[in-house]
Amino acid sequence: MAGNTFGTLFKLSTFGESHGVAIGGVLDGCPAGIELNLEAIQEDLDRRKPGQSAIVTQRKEPDTVEFYSGIFEGKTTGTPIGFAIHNTNQKSHDYSHIKDSYRPSHADYVYDQKYGFRDYRGGGRSSARETASRVVAGAIAKQFLGDMKINAYVSQVGELSLNKSYQELDFSLIESNPVRCPDTATAAKMEEYIKKIKKEGDTVGGVITCVIQNVPVGLGEPVFDKLHAELGKAMLSINAVKGFEYGSGFEGVKMKGSAHNDQFNTDGSTKTNHSGGIQGGISNGMDIYFNIAFKPVATVIQAYDTIDKEGNKVSTQGKGRHDPCVVPRAVPIVEAMAALVMADYTLLNRTIKL
Amino acid sequence: MAGNTFGTLFKLSTFGESHGVAIGGVLDGCPAGIELNLEAIQEDLDRRKPGQSAIVTQRKEPDTVEFYSGIFEGKTTGTPIGFAIHNTNQKSHDYSHIKDSYRPSHADYVYDQKYGFRDYRGGGRSSARETASRVVAGAIAKQFLGDMKINAYVSQVGELSLNKSYQELDFSLIESNPVRCPDTATAAKMEEYIKKIKKEGDTVGGVITCVIQNVPVGLGEPVFDKLHAELGKAMLSINAVKGFEYGSGFEGVKMKGSAHNDQFNTDGSTKTNHSGGIQGGISNGMDIYFNIAFKPVATVIQAYDTIDKEGNKVSTQGKGRHDPCVVPRAVPIVEAMAALVMADYTLLNRTIKL
Amino acid sequence: MAGNTFGTLFKLSTFGESHGVAIGGVLDGCPAGIELNLEAIQEDLDRRKPGQSAIVTQRKEPDTVEFYSGIFEGKTTGTPIGFAIHNTNQKSHDYSHIKDSYRPSHADYVYDQKYGFRDYRGGGRSSARETASRVVAGAIAKQFLGDMKINAYVSQVGELSLNKSYQELDFSLIESNPVRCPDTATAAKMEEYIKKIKKEGDTVGGVITCVIQNVPVGLGEPVFDKLHAELGKAMLSINAVKGFEYGSGFEGVKMKGSAHNDQFNTDGSTKTNHSGGIQGGISNGMDIYFNIAFKPVATVIQAYDTIDKEGNKVSTQGKGRHDPCVVPRAVPIVEAMAALVMADYTLLNRTIKL
Amino acid sequence: MAGNTFGTLFKLSTFGESHGVAIGGVLDGCPAGIELNLEAIQEDLDRRKPGQSAIVTQRKEPDTVEFYSGIFEGKTTGTPIGFAIHNTNQKSHDYSHIKDSYRPSHADYVYDQKYGFRDYRGGGRSSARETASRVVAGAIAKQFLGDMKINAYVSQVGELSLNKSYQELDFSLIESNPVRCPDTATAAKMEEYIKKIKKEGDTVGGVITCVIQNVPVGLGEPVFDKLHAELGKAMLSINAVKGFEYGSGFEGVKMKGSAHNDQFNTDGSTKTNHSGGIQGGISNGMDIYFNIAFKPVATVIQAYDTIDKEGNKVSTQGKGRHDPCVVPRAVPIVEAMAALVMADYTLLNRTIKL
């Protein structure tokens, strides 16, 4: 499994299991001379961390990042940035009940099949805990991107959908509520609903929308490494993601070309933006926006039947402190992956012209 | 732009513009000893080629592939397979009207911005003509995959949706109609609709569903190179694709975890398959299925306004022989990209255990 | 075998066997806007091609390259450059005697072992014929490199060594003799010696020295992708190469640090250049120079004993038209690989600073 | 600078500067199920560490490795192995004298030029301290390689050369003396010489020979990723290395093909081994052996002239605790890099046949 590296020039390699000593990574290729705001990095980690509100898992993990290299006198040096987050609150006993059986719709079964055995103390490498390393690297990428602004927010929870385009929203409200939905009224409904689901010991899915603004023209490496293809892969690599669409997306298939085409203004911008800021895999300078579908997390706090390694039926009971809905905590992860892609493609684009 | 290579071990690099001398590629890493059925390769090319029916572009391109290396006495040798398809019918004059202006929602503008100038004879590298090279490589990948079966079909055209799950369909009917929809009644409606759109000189989008069967357990390289993440990137790299969802996809977000979880049978298979055959980025042995959204192609045979390189407004008229709806011809392209991913991940999976 | 791609951003993938239909490649990542001198490319091919003088193989191969893509109106477009050289004079029967036995110190045996079977019509993929594709790509790289000048020459044939530093030589004399040694007197001795070896039906090794001038400071990607490490790999990937040394090389180990250290001039240049133009894997602006050792080619036109596939002893006779000494024809190959590395590292270096 | 990753499937990414918080790395792609002997890993680290004898630097660094992930119940899990070695004895003040000037033949100048500034507390990323991370990963690779045996030893120090082939040596004597030369008499002379050099405050170069035994047939990925090309790159990436030769190397160029060719035995082995165990870039089952040239380290404890950032001449005095000769401590580094290459190519070779 050498699938733990992301990016070509701005390159992140991560390590770590949910119940190991530490998680972390190596960010290689980050250009030299970036003044790093370490507080901003910790802030993004805090937006992802457990226990931040009543609608997320109540696990307590400080998630404090230690930097080991690549930073000198507050600036990046161009050498790899090594970092780690130690696991302080492993509570293995919470997981002992799953040692010998496979949780439905978890990765337990496939890891056992693929590797021959697994770290049975929780999700191991398949746990979303790994994404904390992505948030660290993404927060650094954001600081490299300068004017480019990346905002993600929750646009759907279960059946509750925010029926507004991103242009109608005030991104400054995203952090004003625990759901991270910038529409206060909808956010309240979503919060209510998540609490209800939690009481039931159940979970529910959601959708996150991400918007990237102030994008220069020309980012993207056709034909295989189109900008939206890499963004799609980045988002689909996040735990529990089931779908990705950008611009007009799945709704766009119903339109006619004459209506879907984005007419030019004389400055090269377009009157509409069904394209989602990308043409032929290359950014055209308009806003990039996309939606990401998250399934309901598999861990339900209910009794369920499953099988053990020998294929015997076993009845068991979901335990532990889990998220009833993953999207509020996934917002900074989406932003981080978007930032990593945009940073990598910014560097790739420097190599194109004589 | 070094974005023209796909895959890590089963690796395709393509070249070629719509109006160049030839398109083609190098397929490296194809294992030695595969008995190649060259007819099957040409058949897939013929399924993609123009002029095959009344509802696709009437351009005439034989699309005959020549193999230059990597095959000896009917078998792959383990050395790179070089191949080319010569462009026989370039009709550049069809495109002369676009030399100095940018077609809305085409890649003309971004290519000029990114590279400083472009091959203005049509789409150049951004033309879907490039995908013929993918079909050649994908057809070889299919022959490596043995029992694994990959079937793609058209499940939506504009508003016309095939409201059946793939289990209700007979894949042997896919090639029975020009739309490549395995439900005869729906196919007829779709064909009618596409003809109407064509008369209007307009275009419409569609959805292709792809199903991969007889998949071994264990394919996928978490955390970044999850199987569905790579499938998503592969599909999003196809011209005109705007979205990808697998398993329960965007609909699944509305479900509760207790209902969404796939309960195990004692043999490790699952009673339901909301997961879409993939858990934690690794195949679990169930069928893999996903949907791909295609936008309406941008070339409409109507008058439209646009701008030239200097940013002056120009009025022009769409010309040429184009597809009113891209999905019927995109079916073999989707299958090819799926085959390339499955072949690459099959090889990667050989390296995992002691 | 996915080992047929070289480079990260300026990326060459090659295909082709000595007795297949054609050899060629895809050069991806070549920046847009380079005015290509196609004659210069063919000239480098002609320097490598058989039959050019009395001391090289008398095979007749025109080695005419056809370009398929990536060039428009005489300039690179930034899209992949596909090219092929058709094999016109295969003379398979010359090789029929080796179908069932393994030539000593050839790759016949290992290819059979690795891939299960092989194209027995000559060297197949292991033939130096493949290097013609490298020369095409390298000739393009040279045109991207502008002021950077790459000169290779023969500095040793068998025991005959050119005991002059490159500073004492006139590179304009390299092409003045068939050996490609810029010292006329030594060249004459070498030519004589190669003719004698040829009469004996034997072969001999040699050394090529390569010098890269006008190198900007800063090329190189420590710690693993140091500039000299990549140059070394590039040279070692050429057929028959057994060794690589740069700067003071193997002789330098005898020196003391106080004598080996290169003292600075006030402009950052150094008074001596034992470093060979590279410090810590990064170019320092001084000339880069290195030596490459080539073994005597294995094909001798003499009787020899060997084994067949079943391990039976067989006596046979070397046939065909082969090079008594490979270095004269290898000079343009060395230059080509050096140019590919310098072009790739020039692009990589653009991504380093904010 | 994304040049800090080595390997395709068995992939090491390292981080860390000589005076940062810690050095370490991520080893990705290590197959699951390997019983790890952690003591053996620490033993290799101890062979590399400072202060181990009178002829190496007297710096005190315990070099204790901490593993963060990828190991469970004593076995590798197939997930990335994250590890770190904290820097305990930084002694920055030893280096304060170099803050504003460039040490001749060090990387100070090129790092400043390439990145715009540098961590001036010693070598930073260009320090050989980084190689401790390679030794950790290489020690794990050795445990994956099973029967394959890798032995490196010092074969030359300055003018003192060990004039014996590796077959004449007893590898069990390598660790019997501080020089790591398996010939006791020669080792004693070398030790004496290194002590003399040290007294002079000077340094001297050396050669390390490495032998790989019990190699399976078939490792190597032509045409660019030939086994010896990757071994060469691996060795050239080690600090202070100036040359690499394998098999007959530079001496072999003087031989005639008829004498250089390795005649077959009926079992496929060869009577001689001028090839060095590799044909056409693929292992042939015979021993692989190669030599690596190390220059005299640049840090001399003498007065010297140099320049500062503004290009002014400055006179200064070499200080600190440095190695008079680098080869004794470089032996485990050479073994580690060889092990990483052999592990990666073992995995790559699993993907070749149907």
UniProtKB/TrEMBL annotation, chains A, B, C, D:
Domain of life: Bacteria
EC numbers for this chain: 4.2.3.5
Keyword list, A-Z: Amino-acid biosynthesis, Aromatic amino acid biosynthesis, FAD, Flavoprotein, FMN, Lyase, NADP
Involved pathway(s): Metabolic intermediate biosynthesis; chorismate biosynthesis; chorismate from D-erythrose 4-phosphate and phosphoenolpyruvate: step 7/7
Keyword check for Amino-acid biosynthesis: yes
Binding site for NADP(+): 48
Binding positions for FMN per the UniProt entry: 125-127, 239-240, 280, 295-299, 321
Free-text cofactor note: Reduced FMN (FMNH(2)).
InterPro entries the record matches: Chorismate_synth (IPR000453), Chorismate_synth_AroC_sf (IPR035904), Chorismate_synthase_CS (IPR020541)
Catalyses which reaction(s): 5-O-(1-carboxyvinyl)-3-phosphoshikimate = chorismate + phosphate
Cofactor names: FMNH2
Family, similarity comment: Belongs to the chorismate synthase family.
HAMAP family reported in the protein's UniProt record: Chorismate_synth
Record's subunit section: Homotetramer.
Functional note: This reaction introduces a second double bond into the aromatic ring system.
Protein name: Chorismate synthase
Gene: aroC
